[in-house]
Amino acid sequence: MLEIRNLHAAIDGNEILKGLDLTIKKGEVHAIMGPNGSGKSTLAKVLAGHPDYEVTAGEVLYEGRNLLDMAPDERAREGVFMAFQYPIEIPGVSNAQFLRLAYNEKQKHFGRDELDPLEFKDLLKERAKVVEMDASFMTRSVNEGFSGGEKKRNEILQMAVLEPKLAVLDETDSGLDIDALRVVAGGVNQLQGPENAIIVVTHYQRLLNYIVPDFVHVLANGRIVREGGKELALELEEKGYDWIVKADLQGSGAAAPAN
Amino acid sequence: MSTAEFLGNKEYKYGFVTDIESDVIPRGLTEDTIHVISQKKNEPAWMLEFRLKAYRHWLTMTEPKHWPNLKYPTIDYQDIIYYSAPKQKPTLASLDEVDPELLKTFEKLGIPLTEQKQLAGVAVDAVFDSVSVATTYKEKLKKHGVIFCSFTEAIKDYPELIQKYLGSVVPTNDNFFAALNSAVFSDGSFCFIPKGVRCPMELSTYFRINNSESGQFERTLIVAEEGSHVSYLEGCTAPKFDKNQLHAAVVELIALDDAQIKYSTVQNWYAGDEEGRGGIYNFVTKRGKCAGRNSKISWTQVETGSAITWKYPSCILQGDNSIGEFYSVALTNHAQQADTGTKMIHLGKNTRSTIISKGIAAGRSNNSYRGLVKVMPKAENARNYTQCDSMLIGSSSGANTFPYIEVMNDSSSVEHEASTSKISEEQLFYLQQRGISSEDAVSLIINGFCKDVFLQLPMEFAVEATRLLGLKLEGSVG
Description:
Chain A is an alpha/beta fold.
């Protein structure tokens, strides 16, 4: 589904990703972990097409197509979804209005029928169960006045409505208390299936107790420096990131992922 | 998509010219011009007197060029044609006798006038250059006692009402453009809602300027008697010409005890091209008087067109407990300039006013809010709430807020809130990440920004306004 080869990306001329390789297949859940500043969020934003990031080398193939050639909205319609670390407020625009527009853009893109507000309301009600959100959220302005937990739930609601093929969750656990974490992770698990894939970007192992990854990749200094199964996350929780980062530096910075 | 690509499909679709034979008087303005206009309309002597008085006063006045935040070359008032009317039979037995070219023109503008196709629930007075060419649902309204007709007819058929109310809210010497209008106005709409009647349908006037050399000077007068209610809509478009055209209208509203008038405008005059060539100079005086107790006047405007917009729909809150409201969205793009706002004059006790203004400036445009809240000594417990929000798109546009507050009564309360924002890259990216194109994303954000105002518009107008803002901003972001 996704193949990243030797990806280099920079913001304001500072290179953040320095030769990243990653392959993701349908039905898989991948966790991207790493210390602060390692490039985790940059990877998420580059995949989504954030305009501030410049890809300086490498390629990304999504379903066989060059993802980097696609505009952010086209990527989204083709099934790439990013759950934002800091969801954005859109004053005056109701959640339902926003979600219906997004949903119908996708329907149009695939030549399917668009839904009118009433039809969409039914769909929304159904999907909202995934994250246990009640109807009052639908009439409120997008993310305006939402608590941190509500914003994150709203991200997963959007995921439930748009049914992405590839979902990138950028630090979805940050700022969540344990109950909200359970709801959000539960929602993600319900949406995970054999036809889609999920990338979970996180600093902490905590979230991975709920969303169990098939693969864990450790990012340091813009490259993947270690890969493993879900046990790797537990090891990191115990030992921290330092030992991996140091080991990588001693390896004279050569890209030598341990697989 | 690049800006240039968008230009292909963002053409001002009302920019066409109707090829029709017109009765046009020579350009220029003298007392003779006024005599000619008055004669053409077979007016009574009192009407001519009104015009001449206004004209003589106008001669002593100077154009208000210093205080508005607007820049434009001096207007040559002798280079304007003050009367241009399509030639047709003077009296028409039915709407179907209106010149087919005119019917076609209005149909193309989305305003079908023939009996079979008329808009349901909306009565329309169609004004083409200097004259009203048709008014729909006149008979039906008459059954309810509602008078809705062209100004020309009103002068002929209801002289007492016109003499009583014309100039009673905006006197002939009120300001330069109002004086000019009072001297040369050629037509417009008159509405009268008798005591206790809730007008059974929306009333509307659609203004169309067609002649490239003529100005449009029309008057609207709405009188709502005790306990009556009326909702009135106004729409305007004009062809694309390289030359600027002057539109100087006067609108007067009078609400007696317990009466309510809701006046909504979607203004889409030709705005000129991207370099600022051509477009309408929209210098308009709109004022309502809440003359009676518990009366209410509500202005809602969506200003998207015109090269220059200079207008301040105002309320004189004379009756005790009367309410004035002003909801405005003003959008400027390219080289457009707007200096718009309101005046709320509190005279009576317990009078209340609300001002919600949303200014959006894109391109190199300049958008100013100018508003006066004045509480006179006898206005016990007067209250005002003002909220002025500006949104800037791109880095070359400008937004200003000029609030004037004069309070002469201690028991009153006046609140003013203002904000300026930009559409952030992050907002755009967020929406795009959900599959929404950048153009639609801008539209969505703008509509959210304007929501408080759009909620005040009648349903059909709200849909139109939403679509219009999207069209106006195409290509201005990203």
